[in-house]
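User: I've been going back and forth on whether these two constructs are worth ordering. Before I decide, could you fold them both?

Assistant: Sure. I'll take them in the order you sent them. The first construct and its structure tokens:
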Amino acid sequence: MFLSVKKGAILCLMTALVLVLAACSSSNGNSKAPNTSSQEAVTDSTTNASTDEQKLDADATGAAQTTYPIVVSNYTTENGTWVAKEQTFDKAPDRVVANTQGAAELLIRLGLTDKIVGVAALFGNVPEDIAEEFKKIPVLSEGYVGKEVTIGASPDLVMGRGGLFEDTDWGVGTVNSLNEMNIKTFVQSTSVTDAKLDNLYKDITELGEIFNVQANAASYIEQLKAREKALAARASAETINYASFFDNGDGTIGVYNGNGDTFIESAMSLINMHNMLINEEGTLSLEKLIEINPDAMIISKYAGGIDPEQTIEKLLTNKQLQSINAIKNKKIYVIDFNNFWGYGDSIFTGVEALADDLNL
């Protein structure tokens, strides 16, 4: 929403917010803890998911079929760096744990709801057209889920955001440790280093092959590419340089660099938006914000987090920041955390919403 017109990770404290944001960054190569006009153009193909899935299944006999075993080149980490690691599937997985809401939503879109035995990290709104399907999935944790609970769901596949594959209380276990227990893994390539929007299509294609729903995958990619084309047609004539901020939970405002969020940057570039801080590292000060002078500023909203309206009020009344163009012109926007850091198809919903707010 556009907060100048209308005002409006798991605790509301500074530590929790930094945790959520860090999950975003860690999923792009670090191993630390976690941080609609276009849509209307493809309404007929996106708002009736169940009907579409039935049609796709009916058409699947004419599509390519998976011959098992199938080997997929996926990922693991070595010394904090993403490297390739093959996963061999002797058959389609039957019990999948999705470590984020976004991963589960993507599986639902491919007609695989009945394969999901658990989901975690419910930080955003579930799209209305798949809300009933989503309710069928057991929730392992409203926040991030640990390895013990993950294994307790008896999965044969764990998939989702790369940064959550860690042996910690907020992680599902490392790729190697899960593989040693004969549990396959699928790290979304959208969440690893240097990911771009095309990685989303790669993930969907590979999931289609793994689960032998290649017709569903191909059809859904066509729908998403139509949305991509519609967004590109709405791009701003001039680059909109933006920066992200958050609430430290102690009355102060923090600046989020988005370092490594190349998947998000790729999607935002469709409407000619650019994160000015994406190549910055470490903690950033408000002075840095003044120095770069962004045209727009963005804050994410997530379940259990501090109300963005409160943080925006602090921003607008901070005398130190009044020279910033985004504040002078009240170009301050709220985005849904899951849309952007779910690393799935809902990235389009998020960018479409921003395009609407920007009147593109």
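The second construct, handled the same way:
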Amino acid sequence: MTASEQTKTAIVFPGMGPSGFSEVGRFLTLDPFARKRLAEADEALGYSVFDRLRDSEDDYSEATQIAFLVNSMASADRAEQEHGLVPDLCVGPSFGQKAAAAYVSSLPFPEVVRLTAELARCEHAYFTEEHQDAVTHTFVRTPREKLTEILTELGERDEWYDYSGYLDDGFFMVSLRETELEWFKKAISQAGGYSMYTMVPAVHAPAFAELRRRAAEEILPKYDILDPKLPVVTDQDGTIVTTADELRTMLLDTFDLPIHWPKVVDTLKGAGVSKMYITGPDNLFHRLDRTKSNFEVVTVGPGKRSRPARKR
């Protein structure tokens, strides 16, 4: 690997996690980059995102998703202006795909705002009709062989489950029925693992092929997706995306394919990336051992002081 390859930089837009209105609302109100992006979002939607966010009690409501998108793009704006960020590759695990699509100019930001709102409504309708009891549980420090035993027991009882994410060694996301959640959490604890949080509705599960079909046939055809201006690494298998068709497929894959962060890391390392900017409200990806051990990581976003954490 040449010296020039060793200095490549990636921008990463994080996936959504639980967040409170106080921190999100404060950032939207006080940060100049966020205020500018929020005004664009309000104009695109024809309503006040802030007002709807304030009234929302759902961690993944339409307004919450738009606010997360706004804050992620605002953080990227700050990284460019204050850090001189000029990335070579882009990644958007899970919900971060939407900000990534805007950043690489496959869709203008206002179009991504509208797309995000439409997809949020589509997801809400789907989970009102289908898989009403599905949740996605995130947990850590669980050996793969122990997890296999736990999931085998679920399968022997004819209980549904799907892998929704492979985040790091011993770090997984699994979707299952909510009625099995307490049993599952207890089994994880007995295996030496630690439960983090549970997402409702569930995400990234092969069982949700019908949701993917609805998005593919009813929503995405409304949008003229362009070739990305810089390569995007898919969060499902680490493939490098360079065309509009590939990016469209990536946006659809998020509905029914699990995240695989180790494959993303392998692709970035193989491309010569040594520095990573994580732009947005991230409580997960910058903390992963696989991230910290392979890259110099700079976090830019709400609650962050934009200080780099040197790789170990």
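Notes on the second construct follow. The longest strand covers residues 161-168. The CA atoms of residues 155 and 161 lie 8 Å apart.
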